[in-house]
Amino acid sequence: MLIAHLADTHLGLKQYGLPWREEDIYERFREAMEKAVREGVDAILISGDMFDRARPPIRAIKVAMETLELPRERGIPVYVILGEHDIPKTRDIPPQSILTYPKLLGTSKTEDMDTLVVDGREYVIAGASHYPAQEKYLRMLKGRLAMLASRVGGRRSVLMLHQSIRNIFAFEEGLDALEIPEAFTYVAMGHIHRRASLRLDGGRLLAYPGSIEILRSDEIGDWVRDGKGFYLVDLSGDEPEVQKVDLDVTPQARVKAAYPTQLAAVDAEAARLASRLRPGRRGILHVEVVIRADVKADPASQIRDRLSRRYGGSIYLRIRVTRVPVGAGEGVERCEGGVSEEGVVASLLSGGNPPAVLKPTIEKLARDVIRLKNVLAELDVGDPNSIVESIVSERDFWRLKVGSAVTASPAPPRKRVRGGLDAFLR
User: Fold this and answer.
1) Is 85 among the residues known to form the active site?
2) Helix, strand, or coil here: 29?
3) How far apart are CA 153 and CA 206, in angstroms?
4) CA-CA distance, 87 to 50, in Å (whole number)?
5) Which of 213, 208, 225 is nearest to 251 (CA)?
6) From CA 243, how far away is CA 50, in angstroms rounded?
7) pLDDT tens digits, residue range 121-144?
8) How many alpha carbons fall within 13 Å on the CB side of residue 274?
9) Distances, alpha carbon 239 to alpha carbons 23, 79, 89, 181, 298, in Å
């Protein structure tokens, strides 16, 4: 049995508000389906976040319907589960429910298991849609997995999940790989946008295919190393075997440099990016310029003028100018590769020369603040509530910062509104 395993297609995402980026993602989805069909797969799995939001643009739904006609016409079943982006925030139905072809697994209103017979052998496809990382939800998920495992009955099986696995991503809350029942031969993961895999006991395999496009700037390095696309998974042997299938993603690059030497660094990275572009294609260059707060200059305009003359509209620029206090860190001038973001935030938090005993607390808070910023900007994944709780838990530090007026315990974080989430998970 040969399956195509995709995840995190995020149809409908208009990255940076650019219509052409929305079209890029649709093109990658079409390309993935075409390649999967050409490979002669027996099934196609989309392990969550098929859409970028639970109420996607009509265009995204239309593209999904048209593109899924490719496998439907050849009798190739398509299975999907819900990621956190797919789950409605109110009591509503997910967008997958109105599609005529893929089979949605793993919600309270759908089946969570199906069987396929390939070359005379029966295979099980099981799925559980996304569960939040809080302990009460993970307990629910583990109970559901045990129930699914009890129904496998010794058959070759695939489990579709949209979760973090702590053994692969140590800083993400989620399941331990040992908590996944041994009944499942291949665990088809989604949620994390980079490729990763883990061989489990008995030759079983857990794998993330990553997203089909570069959806955040922090995915660029992973794309350079591992590509972007999906997996072909062969389940016919004693152990699952995985082969990468790369897609023709829109090239992106990023560079960080200090003023006034930024132009040389930007020129070099822009030239490398331009060399990756095929005729008629565009690339995206992310630039961060670190400049002292007392310097009167507009490095963003300098960069835009220079690159527009050289590359026209073939390189789309995203420029961030970071102004740092005089004396922050250890001097901007020394950093061609970049100023320590953690050092800058720690300097702002300390407000001078704090007692040595507070240094570990300040460093921890700086990391938390940076992670919260990245999560809110969708440059990282995680639970903002738990990060905020970690920040406000340092009560002694904050009392010193704001004075004795803050003596009461901080109010508990507001309960997150999950809308119809519990209904989908029960």
Assistant:
1) yes
2) helix
3) 20
4) 11
5) 213
6) 21
7) 999 999 999 999 899 999 999 999
8) 15
9) 38, 22, 39, 16, 58
Per residue in 338-359, pLDDT tens? Answer: 456 777 787 777 765 666 667 7
**Structural contact between residues 283 and 315, judged by C-beta atoms closer than 8 angstroms:** yes
Q: What band does 381 get if pLDDT is binned at 50, 70 and 90? A: low
Tokens of 313: 């509209």
Report residue 253 as tokens. Answer: 């690059």
* Amino acid letter, 329: G
- Give the ranges where 82-134 is alpha helix by DSSP (H): none
Of 85, 162, 191, 286, which is the active-site residue? Answer: 85
DSSP tag of 61: H
Say what the pTM is: 0.78
Distance CA 6, CA 2 (A): 13
The 3-state DSSP class for residue 418 equals coil
pLDDT band of 212, cuts 50, 70, 90: very high
- In angstroms, the CA 323 to CA 156 distance is 57
Q: Is the pLDDT of residue 257 over 70?
A: yes
Asked if 49 and 83 touch (Cβ cutoff 8 Å), the reply is yes
pLDDT at 396 over 70: no
